[in-house]
Design brief:
The structure holds two protein chains of two kinds. By secondary structure, chain A is α+β, with helices and mostly antiparallel strands. Chain A is built from two helices and ten strands, in the order E-E-E-E-E-E-E-E-E-E-H-H. In chain A, strands 2-1-9-8-5 form a five-stranded mixed sheet, with no helix packed on it. A five-stranded antiparallel sheet of chain A has the order 4-3-6-7-10. In chain A, a hairpin with a 4-residue loop joins strand 1 and strand 2. The longest helix of chain A has 17 residues. The radius of gyration of chain A is 15 Å and the shape is globular. Chain B has a five-stranded mixed sheet, sandwiched between helices. In chain B, helix 1 packs antiparallel against helix 6. The two termini of chain B are 32 Å apart. Classes of the chains: A alpha+beta, B alpha/beta. At the A-B interface, strand 5 and strand 8 of A face helix 1, strand 6 and helix 6 of B. Strand 5 of chain A pairs parallel with strand 6 of chain B, so a sheet runs across the interface.
Chain lengths: 134, 290
């Protein structure tokens, strides 16, 4: 059994990471999950949160704002709407995202209110994890 | 025959024009490289997105509960044309080819009794289309302030288009842009974004995925992103095409200016010689008369 797999993180504008990894922690919409090599094929949407990648003795962290992840036996790829290395996530960037999410919630219709609410809370939780306040 | 002074001025002004077109060509070349890199960097995302959506669409497609973005509203009466052009001119036939395609498309639809609505991106196309279609233009996206195209720009356009779709303003949306083939060839392309159509790319490897949440929920979440991605890809292609078109147009202009300078220089030298000959004749005949 292979103990590493290919990991790709791409955003619409560029590819942020492409490397061999042992495990990936994904903040899925329905709960966090860890993908390792030979995981059953899975596609899940992701919520705003921290994406953690372990491979080659080092750990990479990315703040992602949504998108989806595709897991198959030999590869995991995350298509993020917006992603930045966690160390580059700044207070201002987070504040901008939170404001945007807040506005989206305020203008949301009855049916999309829950989703917008959840997104806002997820963003704030992500900020807390990084030690930033929203 | 123009006198010497005029010719000299003319040569000077054409030389200045050549300097400008040459500079524009070089600027376009530098921008083209960056635009091409951007287009290439965006490709993996778009490809993957399309593959996943294609797979999802194939498995959900037939059911009645499929999202409207995929199955359409069931009607085909109101068409939205999103026409993407450049913000600046001097780029050869770049804008005209898109406008021509969009105009033909719109006229065909109108002749078939459909309602056409138009959303323009970029100033140049709007100016050209205004004459025939001003009454059906619903909005205009101004990108002239944007230095570097980002996903955010596409996201905003997509949001606008999607909210109109949700509001029932149209049934079918098509985008018009120039696909970048090479520096000398850009292909005006129309592609339908709503209802979404996917090329069947899932043929070779049909991995069975688990979906979390349910397939339909994922699809409902991803389709709007798919639309934004397609718009973004089109914007990037268009950006690269614009620079390519400008580069070759300016290359032509530089060459033409060079030819013109050569011709004018010959004319200038001939008239200069003629003037000298004339003066000599005058002097000689003057001397003979003495």
């Amino acid at each position: 059994m292979a103990d590493t797999m290919q990991f790709d993180l791409v955003s619409p504008e560029k590819s942020l990471a492409s490397l061999q990894v042992t495990e990936v922690h994904i903040p899925g919409t329905e709960g966090d999950l860890t993908a390792m090599a030979d995981h059953a094929p899975l596609i899940t949407t992701i919520r705003p949160g921290i994406l953690k990648v372990l491979g080659g003795g080092e750990t990479l962290e990315f703040a992602v704002t949504g998108g989806f992840a595709e897991v198959s036996a030999g590869a995991t790829s995350v298509l993020a709407e917006q992603a930045v290395p966690a160390s580059e996530m700044t207070q201002e960037l987070l504040a901008a995202l939170v404001t945007e999410a807040g506005e989206a919630r305020d203008s949301a219709t009855e049916s999309s209110r829950d989703t917008a609410d959840k997104r806002l809370n997820d963003l704030i939780a992500m900020g807390a994890q990084l030690g930033l306040s929203a | 025959m123009p006198n010497l002074k005029d010719l000299k001025n003319r040569i000077g002004s054409v030389k200045n024009t050549r300097k400008i077109t040459k500079a524009m060509q070089m600027v376009a070349a530098a921008k083209l490289r960056r635009a091409q890199e951007a287009a290439e960097a965006g490709r993996p995302y778009a490809d993957r997105m399309n593959a996943v959506l294609g797979g999802l669409a194939a498995s959900v497609g037939g059911s009645d509960s499929a999202p409207k973005l995929l199955s359409g509203t069931g009607a085909d009466q109101v068409h939205l044309l999103v026409v993407m052009t450049s913000e600046r001119g001097l780029c050869g036939g770049f804008n005209s080819t898109i406008v021509k395609l969009a105009r033909a498309h719109a006229q065909k639809l109108q002749a078939a009794g459909k309602t056409v609505k138009m959303l323009t991106v970029g100033k140049k196309g709007r100016e050209q289309l205004k004459r025939d279609f001003e009454s059906v233009m619903i909005d205009h996206v101004d990108l002239s302030e944007v230095k570097k195209l980002g996903y955010a720009n596409a996201h905003d356009i997509a949001k606008d288009v999607l909210s109109r779709f949700d509001g029932g303003e149209f049934d079918v949306a098509t985008i018009f842009y120039n696909r970048f083939q090479s520096v000398i060839s850009q292909i005006p392309t129309a592609s339908q974004i709503i209802p979404a159509s996917f090329e069947d790319a899932s043929g070779e490897e049909a991995t069975l995925y688990d979906y979390e949440p349910e397939e339909e929920a994922i699809l409902a979440d991803l389709l709007p992103r798919g639309v934004a991605t397609q718009i973004f890809a089109a914007l990037l292609e268009n950006g690269a095409s614009e620079q390519g078109a400008r580069m070759s147009a300016m290359d032509n202009a530089t060459r033409n200016a060079g030819d013109m300078i050569d011709k004018l220089t010959i004319q200038y030298n001939r008239s200069r010689q003629a003037v000298i000959t004339n003066e000599l004749i005058e002097i000689i005949s003057g001397a003979e008369a003495l």
